[in-house]
Design brief:
homotetramer, 374 residues, alpha/beta, Rossmann fold, Dihydrodipicolinate Reductase, domain 2, 2 domains, 9-stranded mixed β-sheet, 6-stranded parallel β-sheet, 17 strands
Chain lengths: 374, 374, 374, 374
Amino acid sequence: MTTKPDFNVGLIGSGFMGKAHTFGYASAAKVFDLAVNPVLHTLADISDAAASKAASALGFAHATSDWRKMVDDPAIHVVNITAPNALHKDMALAAIAAGKHVYCEKPLAPLVADAREMAEAAEAAGVKTQVGFNYLCNPMLKLAREMIEAGELGEIRGFRGLHAEDYMADATGPYTFRHDPAGGGALADLGSHVLATAEYLLGPVTEVMGDCVTMIPERPDGYGGVKAVTVDDVARAFLRFASGANGSLEANWIATGRKMQHDFEVWGSKGALTFSQERFNELHFFDTRDAKGRQGFRRIEAGPDHAPYGRFCVAAGHQIGFNDLKAIEVARFLEAITSGAPEPYGFRAGLRIQMLVEAIHQSSSERAWRSVPD
Amino acid sequence: MTTKPDFNVGLIGSGFMGKAHTFGYASAAKVFDLAVNPVLHTLADISDAAASKAASALGFAHATSDWRKMVDDPAIHVVNITAPNALHKDMALAAIAAGKHVYCEKPLAPLVADAREMAEAAEAAGVKTQVGFNYLCNPMLKLAREMIEAGELGEIRGFRGLHAEDYMADATGPYTFRHDPAGGGALADLGSHVLATAEYLLGPVTEVMGDCVTMIPERPDGYGGVKAVTVDDVARAFLRFASGANGSLEANWIATGRKMQHDFEVWGSKGALTFSQERFNELHFFDTRDAKGRQGFRRIEAGPDHAPYGRFCVAAGHQIGFNDLKAIEVARFLEAITSGAPEPYGFRAGLRIQMLVEAIHQSSSERAWRSVPD
Amino acid sequence: MTTKPDFNVGLIGSGFMGKAHTFGYASAAKVFDLAVNPVLHTLADISDAAASKAASALGFAHATSDWRKMVDDPAIHVVNITAPNALHKDMALAAIAAGKHVYCEKPLAPLVADAREMAEAAEAAGVKTQVGFNYLCNPMLKLAREMIEAGELGEIRGFRGLHAEDYMADATGPYTFRHDPAGGGALADLGSHVLATAEYLLGPVTEVMGDCVTMIPERPDGYGGVKAVTVDDVARAFLRFASGANGSLEANWIATGRKMQHDFEVWGSKGALTFSQERFNELHFFDTRDAKGRQGFRRIEAGPDHAPYGRFCVAAGHQIGFNDLKAIEVARFLEAITSGAPEPYGFRAGLRIQMLVEAIHQSSSERAWRSVPD
Amino acid sequence: MTTKPDFNVGLIGSGFMGKAHTFGYASAAKVFDLAVNPVLHTLADISDAAASKAASALGFAHATSDWRKMVDDPAIHVVNITAPNALHKDMALAAIAAGKHVYCEKPLAPLVADAREMAEAAEAAGVKTQVGFNYLCNPMLKLAREMIEAGELGEIRGFRGLHAEDYMADATGPYTFRHDPAGGGALADLGSHVLATAEYLLGPVTEVMGDCVTMIPERPDGYGGVKAVTVDDVARAFLRFASGANGSLEANWIATGRKMQHDFEVWGSKGALTFSQERFNELHFFDTRDAKGRQGFRRIEAGPDHAPYGRFCVAAGHQIGFNDLKAIEVARFLEAITSGAPEPYGFRAGLRIQMLVEAIHQSSSERAWRSVPD
């Protein structure tokens, strides 16, 4: 009945993020008024068996163990990369070479040089790209940015950002790819989200001072031995923004008890905002223009006044979930592709995050402040 | 690639709940390992134009203004009813007569007699039914019930339930179908959720004392005049449970500032639970067996330990949303249909809620306690 | 150096509330600009030894086991009664007969007739009286009342009040004077606070429907046996106010995990307030006049804008404590005595509370609504 | 009736902290079982009139405009210094020279050299000293330290501390002594509390990296002109502890909306604690030994299990206030004086804080990490 053109999705990987992408397409197609009809076309995974099983479970029409073949398949319109970080570059470059739009999970690539190569290749090829920073898709973050831009907080003076979880708090947990010196660590994994939020809200960071520490220096290697860990379990940074504001961040994956504490506070001359991803359908706003004796942080609950919440639910306070953030991310990307508008968070943005991560790492190693290149 | 049989969905209505059903099917198909492949087959709405538009937006293959025809279509396996309450009965009976499974939004029917007729018809026909009480599908409510059943709270002594919103707080808001004497009011609309939660957690209510009050006695009729309102804006009840516990409820749709306050507290001899739908990915647990000086309500965040949360996300604290509750509801219903297991919340359960609502209304009118029939 | 006249305090009892009174006088003398200089003159207790020990610890100049003698001592200006409830009447009447001002802990007397006799005696004698409802002395409650009176919430529609603690949750806890049929029970002990708050904020209650339940029917008697308990462990009531508003209350002393949950919510046509004694330096205010998309309950922290907070601390957010509420209560009473102004919460008010408690008890026994006499 | 010896208090200053000291003595004498009877003997202030007025209001027997005379008065046992920071040194040295115990508000002295001179003088003279870091007197901080020492959190890995208020957020607020380059700034004023808490809980800090920023570079001078501000409005630091743990702090006096946000989080291998001075009668504890699916931060409410809370109130959850923290501080000091035990927070501790503050300031100026001397 729909006359929308099909838009064939190829997905590489079927883990946590592969599922999230799939759920995102399925929801986006219902929730938003897309210009195209996303079709779950082909799923590529490590083996034929794994691919077939995942394709069946997730509803893809085809399965393959050969991602290169899928990338080159003329039927595919977009390639979604949710494979291990070390493979992002090859996969993305192949997809770009095949003229495909690419939607890659973060980090774009562990090394800045690789991320730059990917961003430049995409721009040269004229394909659209997206890096998965889905927390930015939260209507409450959009609200925060709009309030800041509209001057509701006055002049912005500072920022404090945190992303703390505890999935690496257990010292007996095994060494994983997240511990690899190239691209691993809490800053790359979690701090990248804080950096994305910080620049989304306050604009470019120009200078950083980092402090990256390893608290659990070795982990079981899975073969009865141990393996040294050199990446950061906790990373902190002081931040300077081009706007004149300053701030700080902490990334922490040994924060016992914390599951999803992507929090921030922004203070300005007229107001302030606080937010916690632990309760991400809320934004707390202090307004110095409220009457004397009646001032206080007010808990704004997400609702139809905060687009695109209303797409999911017509009533405030009912709450969207983590997967809904991904659906918004999918919809924004498809909107950019079909309308020709700039991508909301393309490879250039992903490169930017890697540059910031690298600058903080280097600053920490050198124990000195460091400028962030433009 | 999937070899699952198609399962054709017919939907009547395309408003708030019609959309929620649609999103539910789309998500459930991806998130759960269903035995069937749900297909959005036909959408029926008030006119051909409305139906076509909604079908296109929501991804249904067919559209019709004649719900009876859809109900009789042999291709349809399940009929989803999200039309105004007054139509539920005719639609459900027709669907049952056509041998279809029926998934009807709450209330099953405004009148107990009608609800009973529907439940009995379904049972006689051997079709599966479901009434939409999706808050019960929250993993944290399942956890609460499991903790109660396992004796983690000791002997259960009491319950306090509340469902407060403010969508009727504005006295200049127009008269709607929710204000109709037959089936309207805060108790039927919101209190029904509290009753469902109360019996889900503590078992049958045996006696009630109601207090139903109208605070805004007339509303604009939409034609320049006003119309008297007689249904309850606020309803309260004392509750006796068969278990020996007792409790209370409040339903309130003029609770200024409240958007989704479906809250409860359960206290037992060894522990207590508190919950708020405002933060429905959390359950707070007090355990008297915690060490002296270390006791306190602990905030349990929903995670993979709390099925079926893990279907949506492998990491705790990331949070599911309102529409995900509907996806769980869909999955449970399809599971009952395909496995032959009893429905989790069928028409008999919907009838039960109407009996409780009616008992409270009658108690309030008579200003006297009233037993609830079995 | 001070030229203020001495004001000699006689205290009967030295338990929880006896200490609180003492701390209250000591603080009030420093914190407020009183017209008199309170002197801790004589402490009366059950025996000479107990009285001496307590007097020494609390800083009273004299001690006695004969409260009647103290009451008649011409040096004493005010008699503070914190003895067991059953003794309040005799003590108060004796003090009134001796022309003393009387500051009596709640309940004024278990029986309405006794409370009335006490109130009338005091009025006939022209002495000033006070009943200890110190939660009313919270600056945030004063703020709440001022906001209501100023119309900041619009027309007041409803109230929900709760006072829940868990000090009787352990069924092995012994029978105490609080379990005595005359005057005992959760409603008298805790619900009285809710009633005081309700009328303080919304004005007179005119009609009630009560539900008083005993959940732990017998307790150890301290002599190896058990004793039947007939008073309420949980009491609930529906409330009608003279203003046209309605509401409810719950008093609960078996609320496992709760230590001091004296909470309320008030909703009006333009705004709402929520409060919890668990965090009693905060008042949460929802204002429908806030901009669209920016509305939410705002957490007002107590500060110098909320008199008499500034007497204790010049900076907001630093917080006053439970004993400070008592100091405010003391100061208000002394102000009434020295200025001749009406008492803020005299025996007449204490009588009123007992009338409400009795009406709810009778309503519960009769299972019927009951009017509250003026 | 008491046979306790009098202990005569001399107070210099009668502002915010002068009042707090006075309230502290008055409460401590009632609440604690002190070995002496504190007498408010003499109050010294800027002029005879000011001193007389304050002495009368606060209940001191004598008043003087000559603090030196009071310090030398043989009747005085302890000198309380709450005068402007720049005067602390001269006053304390004079009091020490006169053989008096000294209780000085923070900061002990703006310059480390001065603080050292004061500490050494006190030690040489054998008098007892105290610096007012009253947040450390919170029973919940004592609980936190006991839990850490008992290993309830396992190995301690990290700390995040914050003290944010907004009393300098208004750029039109005048230049005050708190803006003086010698001793002023948010780090000295607020960050000192974080440093005290950090070392109280985790032991010595060995290395710091500071970031001190001035956001409001000039303020009205009160004479129609403006005056440059060079002290920090926001100060941040990375911290290394001798224990091997690491952490961070932020001090912020332009944190719009924040009134008393002295918060911390401590994470260890087995558990974590979070605390906010905004709700300082609570400590939140996560315990990894709780059962799977039942874990969460639990809100421990202060009660008699957490000494010395029980001195103020026999029931949990009733809450102590800011002034009660001061009463505890007073009692601890008197205990040290009368028992001969070491002071809980003497001048040596105050010196330590100044050394940490200086190290952070220097680190910030030099933009380099800096060791903290022992």
